[in-house]
Amino acid sequence: MLTDTHAHLDFPEYAGELEEVLSRASAAGISRILTISTSVEGSTRAVALAQAHPMIRATIGVHPCYVDESPDDILSHLTPLASLPEVVAIGETGLDYHRSKEAPEASAARSAWENNRSRQALFFEQQLELACQSGLNVVVHQRDSWDDTLAILRPYSGRLGAVFHCFGGSLEQAHSLLDLGFCVSFTGIVTFKNAALVRDTAARLPAGSFFLETDCPFLAPVPHRGKRCEPAHTRLIAECIADLRNEPLETLAEHTSAAAAAFFQRRSPHRAIPN
Questions:
Q1: Distance between CA atoms of 138 and 60, rounded to whole angstroms?
Q2: In terms of Cα–Cα distance, which of 54, 8, 26, 63 is closest to 228?
Q3: Fewer CB within 10 Å: C terminus or N terminus of the chain?
Q4: Distance CA 112, CA 114 (A)
């Protein structure tokens, strides 16, 4: 049985159709789905979905692209949710510099982007501390921010686990994360013929060091590329990676699901958030 470790089931793309989506996932051999939060409001929705559906578990957190529209006191909203049994990780959180790469050089615009980056870092660190306090691992979003993301995360190595979701980097980058005790997960991008780098990485990483995810409704794998993605497509991703690794689908499913189950469970809290 397979695990989709990163879905956004609270998004409007699934409104009115969730039962059918879950039924198709079950038919495709997916036994567990993690619905991933991107905002304070989304965290509440994710928990409600997990409470209503036994095959779903939730994460809570604020995505870096949503920090400007989030309240300053995100911890007052997230901390009460972190202790709920349906919550299995914090995130997705991290740094996303994609839009700021092309920010205008005008001083006002540049200042706004710098403020945004600072707020992203602040929220990232707050959520890492919440993870330590709660005994939870973190789901990391990293886009065009590799060095800064690692600079913030590196001190947490040994205190919590982190999965770099939608990993698209090199084998060398992946091993640098494994050396810190972190891991990665792969989306439908591995099925794209022009994604040679990530296909090579998925083929060569050691078993147990990576998970499977759809990031649905985004990144539908071939042959559904360009359409709405859903958890049932985890099977297509698994079949592709199993083929790249020249191993049976059952073996890949066993290793990835076992690794995900071990990662997405509560640990003993490392330390409380300082006052």
A1: 10
A2: 8
A3: C
A4: 5
What values do phi and psi take at 33, rounded to 5? Answer: -130, 130
- Give the integer Cα–Cα distance in Å for 157 and 209: 15
Among 267, 269, 265, residue whose Cα is nearest residue 133: 269
CA 177 to CA 183: how far, in whole Å?
6
- Catalogue all structural domains in the chain, each as residue range(s) with its CATH number: 2-252 (3.20.20.140)
**What are the backbone dihedrals phi and psi of residue 10, each rounded to the nearest 5 degrees, phi first?**
-85, -5
Express each pLDDT in 3-38 by its tens digit. 999 999 999 999 999 999 999 999 999 999 999 999
Q: What is the pTM of this model?
A: 0.94
Answer yes or no: are the C-beta atoms of 175 and 163 closer than 8 Å: no
Residue in 155, 143, 201 with CA at minimum distance from that of residue 180 = 155
Please name every residue paired with 34 in a beta bridge, in sequence order, or none if there are none: 57
Let me know: does 183 contact 177? Beta carbons within 8 Å.
Answer: yes
Quote the CA–CA distance of 165 and 140 in Å, as a whole number: 6
The helix-helix angle for 40-52 and 74-82 (nearest 10°) equals 20
Report the C-alpha gap between 60 and 14 in whole angstroms. Answer: 19
DSSP-derived secondary structure letter, 232: G
